Amino acid sequence: MANSLAQRPISDARIGRWLEELAESDGSPGGGAAAALMLAAAAALMSMSGGYASASATAQSELTGLLARAKQLRLDALAMADRDARASAEFGVAYAQPASE
Fold first, then answer.
1. Which tens digit of pLDDT belongs to each residue from 36-76?
2. Whole-prediction pTM
3. What contacts 24+ positions apart, CB below 8 Å, involve 71-77?
């Protein structure tokens, strides 16, 4: 199956389709993209948990900072997943070439 997801951001992908392509042996998305997606999910869970937290006035600034860092981590992890998917797609093309090439 020709991998179509490496051409667009992971944030635009349906998770079921993305996982189907991860299961393929064409190299993209690869393990690095999968790890970055798990990091993005962990950051999203941090945001969700932080959203439920009630903080005193003195701790509110710290909570706000934590939520901002979690959001940035989520966005950065998605960007890493996209970069890895593109690199893995190139690897998959090279790997598919006959050994003599």
1. 999 999 999 999 999 888 888 888 889 999 999 999 999 99
2. 0.78
3. 71/43, 71/47, 73/39, 73/40, 73/43, 73/46, 74/40, 74/43, 74/44, 74/47, 77/36, 77/37, 77/39, 77/40, 77/43
